[in-house]
Design goal:
This protein is α/β, with parallel strands linked by helices. The chain has helices spanning 6-11, 20-30, 40-45, 85-92, 107-116, 120-123, 139-144, 204-216, 270-300, 333-336, 363-371, 385-388, 455-473, 486-494, and strands at residues 60-66, 95-97, 100-101, 130-131, 149-155, 171-176, 179-184, 222-228, 307-313, 318-319, 325-326, 337-338, 340-343, 352-354, 358-359, 399-404, 410-415, 419-425, 432-437, 479-480. It has 2 domains: 6-46 and 401-473, Arylsulfatase, C-terminal domain; 60-398, Alkaline Phosphatase, subunit A (3-Layer(aba) Sandwich), CATH 3.40.720.10. The strands form 5 sheets. A 9-stranded mixed beta sheet has the order 7-6-5-8-1-9-13-2-14, sandwiched between helices. Bound molecules: zinc ion (ZN).
């Protein structure tokens, strides 16, 4: 299987960094096992989660992930259009992290990271023939061990339990095409689920209905996970929302078949491009309404006061910023910057926007710390609980991200608040390293050479990170997926993820 468009996308990455010193650094990183500083360096860069006070009544947890949702397209993140009134309210009532970095730029590895607190390079679920191994303790399993009832309602092919992401859920049910799928009731959440259709219908109403049913009968404490898929391409928001952000459009452009649609490209007419943006915005507005209904359901059932709400996205979406469309092509900020917000009245401070960069890696340890549950040793992130409770400022930490690219090799990025380093381990030629100064080049358009102020420290950080990965990978090889269910394969193919 290969990814359509990946070759030309990666090939457009800067080729100017061929200075001898960069090549030397790149080779060292590739052959790092013999001569790198070993794992404790990264550990020194990572703060240890702080102690948790005892709780009388453990809070419920509602974790919502929205597919393909860029942070900068939400009004609470400064977007000019009011795309997200419900999420804006959630942010006002809790804490919003201005810069939250995804573990990768596609659904499967990022959700495994949300569920394990480990990076893609360590959990190894970085391709569609991989599944999360049973040896991992997932967020649902960790909460289940504390006596939580657990349920997950999901849409989109990569949340299928065949990929191992249903571990720990008492109930784990998928939805496609607006039709309810058979439910899994098995303890490991691996039962049969559903058949899928092309993404030309909506799933948010059904996910919301299931969530509201669950809340109506929920036994505390519970962990409820919801994955909304309608923001993912194709962008076909239902009537009348498709006009909401471009009411005057009179053309005949539609965003159907997004990946394969030859009318959607970097040089498409400006007017149609604007309409494409409006359709994406419409999908966000549409999904926002359903998230609002779930939050209202919490209130109606008297659960608002004792439920930690966590909202994020699995990755962003690119609209030709670096030539391509969709996601799973690059690790630039348009696919890595996701929303992240937390709310629990009385415990999480209100209306606070945190500027310190945080990561997908931090979500699971934050939730476990917040409810007073132990954090498994396999977690690489850190708890954000102290800052949620207004206790302390956060020290910034580097955010690693990873993308396997089939025949094109692998891409690793390491982002701080001031610079971002890319390491492209090309399969059939010398690896490349390039660096962006985010202060002077926030759009990542001008890669820098090796004689820049950040290069030495960036390289040290990357070496330390790779050592940490090597150390943690031992004993955690990804588990091959014996057979992807045919209905899942079919949906992946229609979404453009397979090219076989
Ligand atoms: Zn996704």
């Amino acid at each position: 299987m290969t990814l359509p468009g990946s070759a030309q996308r990666i090939a457009s990455s800067p080729r100017t960094l061929t200075r001898k010193v960069w090549r030397s650094i790149a080779r060292d990183l590739r052959t790092r096992r013999g001569n790198l500083v070993r794992g404790c360096q990264w550990a020194l860069l990572v703060a240890i989660a702080s102690c948790t006070p005892p709780l009388d009544e453990p809070p419920n947890v509602l974790l919502i992930s929205i597919d393909s949702l860029r942070a900068d397209r939400l009004s609470c993140y400064g977007y000019s259009k009011t795309t997200s009134p419900q999420l804006d309210r959630l942010a006002r009532e809790g804490v919003l992290f201005e810069t939250a970095i995804a573990d990768s730029s596609w659904t499967l590895p990022t959700h495994v990271t949300l569920f394990t607190g480990a990076a893609s390079q360590v959990h190894g679920v970085d391709w569609e023939d991989r599944r999360l191994g049973d040896q991992w303790t997932t967020l649902a399993e960790a909460l289940s061990a504390e006596g939580y009832a657990t349920a997950g309602y999901w849409s989109g092919p990569f949340l299928h339990p065949a990929f191992g992401v249903g571990q720990g859920f008492d109930r784990y049910a998928g939805t496609s095409g607006g039709q309810e799928a058979p439910e899994s009731e098995s303890p490991d959440g691996r039962s049969e689920t559903t058949s899928f259709e092309h993404h030309d219908t909506v799933t948010s109403p059904e996910i919301t209905r299931q969530a509201l049913d669950y809340l109506a009968n929920a036994k505390a404490p519970f962990f409820l996970f919801l994955h909304y898929f309608d923001v993912h391409y194709d962008y076909i928001p239902p009537e009348p929302i498709w006009r909401k952000f471009d009411a005057n459009y009179e053309g005949d452009f539609v965003a159907e078949g997004f990946i394969f649609n030859e009318d959607i490209h970097a040089k498409m007419p400006r007017r149609e491009r604007r309409h494409l943006d409006a359709l994406y915005d419409g999908e966000i507005y549409y999904t926002d309404q359903f998230v609002g209904q779930v939050l209202e359901g919490l209130r109606e059932h008297g659960l608002e006061e004792n439920t930690l709400v966590v909202l994020t996205a699995d990755h962003g979406e690119e609209f030709f910023e670096h030539g391509g469309k969709g996601h799973r092509l690059t690790l630039y900020d348009e696919v890595l910057e996701v929303p992240l917000m937390f709310r629990m009245p009385g415990r999480v401070v209100t209306g606070k926007q945190i500027t310190t960069q945080v990561r997908h890696l931090d979500v699971m340890p934050t939730i476990l710390d917040f409810v007073g549950a132990p954090t498994p040793d396999t977690v690489q992130g850190r708890s954000l609980r102290p800052v949620l409770e207004g206790e302390a400022a956060l020290a910034p930490l580097p955010a690693p991200s990873f993308l396997k690219h089939g025949k094109m090799g692998t891409l690793t990025s390491l982002r701080t608040e001031t610079w971002k380093l890319f390491y492209w381990d090309r399969a059939e030629s010398e690896p490349l390293v390039f660096l962006h100064d985010l202060a002077s080049d926030p759009r990542e358009k001008r890669p820098l050479g090796a004689d820049t102020p950040h290069s030495a420290i960036a390289t040290q950080h990357l070496q330390a990170w790779q050592s940490e990965v090597d150390r943690r990978q031992q004993g955690f090889d990804a588990t091959p997926l014996d057979e992807i269910p045919e209905d899942v394969l079919e949906e992946l193919r229609e979404l453009g993820y397979l090219d076989d």
